[in-house]
Design a protein that fits this description.
The chain is α/β, with parallel strands linked by helices. It has a single domain, classed as Collagenase (Catalytic Domain) (3-Layer(aba) Sandwich). Helix 2 packs across helix 3. It starts with a helix and ends with a helix.
């Protein structure tokens, strides 16, 4: 009888141990989303003007969200200033601040400069400049988001601004004391505020009446309006966080 009891106890211990091992979560598969920011289409037929569409306004409440998100509302990021115009880091910080100041509980924390560039899954979040024309012809900027496919949690985000394009801090703002202004440039803060929306997984909007929202999908030279979030941008971030 003693041997039988011992055997039963051992069997129960092994069964319990096996149950713990089997309960370990399976490895998560990682997938990615690529957001490509293109210039405003030019030429005849570039836009469709609906006869009864409402006029574009920053009070438009539209937004697009896929369900992918950060596990916690705290995101650290680095900036590679190589190839960027002077004072770009301050402009980029202001871009993230626009979302941090919106409804919702998202916190962005600047961790300083880095030499890392490009888009690599290294579990670090980086803004850099690089020539992306070959891979993304005509693109102003590209943001790549890696995430766990099963639980839809973000693990890494990188934005690359196209170094082949003209960039300036305060683009289009003419200094009255200077002979020339910054006309004919993409504004760093304007474009990066849009890209920061992708860091939070808000998608691009292309409807006619969304042109004055930050998440409108096209960018333009000397444009500044994306620096300030519209109603739909704020509603989107408030829903996620």
């Amino acid at each position: 009888m003693k041997k039988i009891k011992i055997g039963i106890i051992i069997a129960l211990v092994l069964s319990f141990s096996y149950g713990i091992t089997a309960a370990k979560p399976a490895p998560q598969e990682i997938d990615k989303v690529v957001f490509i920011h293109y210039p405003v289409p030019q030429g005849q037929g570039a836009y469709w003007f609906p006869a009864k569409a409402p006029a574009p306004t920053d009070q438009n409440t539209k937004y697009k969200y896929s369900g992918i998100h950060w596990a916690v509302p705290y995101v650290e990021y680095l900036v590679n200033p190589s190839g960027a115009p002077p004072e770009s880091e301050s402009a980029i910080n202001a871009s993230f601040d626009a979302w941090q100041s919106a409804p919702g509980d998202i916190i962005f924390e600047y961790q300083g400069a880095t030499s890392i560039s490009g888009s690599v899954l290294d579990y670090g979040n980086v803004v850099s400049w690089g020539n992306i024309t070959e891979d993304y012809p005509g693109a102003i900027a590209v943001t790549v988001v890696w995430y766990y496919r099963g639980i839809k949690e973000i693990v890494d985000v990188d934005t690359i601004m196209n170094s082949g394009d003209p960039w300036a801090v305060n683009a289009g703002v003419v200094d009255p004391d200077a002979e020339t202004g910054n006309a004919g440039y993409y504004d760093v803060q304007n474009i990066m505020t849009h890209e920061a929306g992708h860091w939070l997984m808000l998608g691009d909007l292309y409807q006619w009446d969304t042109q004055k929202l930050t998440m409108y999908g096209y960018g333009a030279l000397d444009e500044l309006r994306k620096r300030t979030l519209g109603a739909g941008d704020k509603l989107g971030i408030d829903r996620i966080y």
